[in-house]
Structures are given as structure tokens and as C-alpha cells.
Amino acid sequence: HWTYVEVTLDYWILAAHNGANGATLIQADIPRSLKTKITYLKRAHKELPPLIPLAAEAGEVIAEIHRLKEKRHDIIHGYVESQATTLIESEKLQYIRHRPDGARIREEVREYSWEDLAQLEVDIIALAKRANALTARVIEVIDDPQNSGG
Hints:
alpha+beta, 3-stranded antiparallel sheet, 3 strands
């Protein structure tokens, strides 16, 4: 369900970019990576007048993205150190992730239980719904004729 989060961020950015002059006031190009999307949205809610009233809620959603993104990265970019036949029997799964660290590659190992993985999915779905609701409010604010963006 992380794709739902990413697609929602894309629509949130498009609303700010096209409807609130983000293309002129923040940057001409649409951000692509999660890191640049977050940076863009922080700036949008700080610098684009129609979005400033939603800055606190945007900050909460962005904080939740930060909280969940490393776990998501572990699972997507890591691999499980176990035999496929023992995965179901395992109480905890060790995810191994290789990360560039200067001129070296660092190995990180994190353990997740099946309950951890189920909770991560629940949290990601809740985040996606919250981000989607905020995106709808951003569009409403931009479309409001009383705002200069609409």
C-alpha cells in the first residue's frame, strides 16, 4: 500500500505545483524521489499562501511518512535471511539491507515479527488515507475563489 501513499503525494504536489504557483515559487520541476517530495511539500506549506493554513496537518502527515519510511525501505530494499521453507515458522524475520556509506557498503540487519509487518501495513493504509484526505482539502483550498490560487 505504499504506492497509495506515493500516488497521493504526487497529487498533493500537483495541486500545489499547478494550482498554488508552486512551479513558479518553489521549483519548476515536479519532484520524483520521496526525499525531494517531502522537501517540496514542506516548502509548499510554508511558502504558498493558500497552503499555509494547512501547514500543521501537513507537518503531521510528513512526520508519519518519516516514521514509516525506513521500515518500508528495509522490507522493499532488504532481503530475508532464511530458507523459504522456514519463513512461516519463524517468529521474527531478519531483513538485511546494504546501504552505501561513503566509499563502503554497510550491512544493516533489522528484525521484524509477523505482527510488526501486519502493523506496518495497517499504519501505511492509515497514512495513505490521511494523506489523501489532506490532499482533497488542499485542492478545495486552492479551488476556493477567495484564494489567489483558484
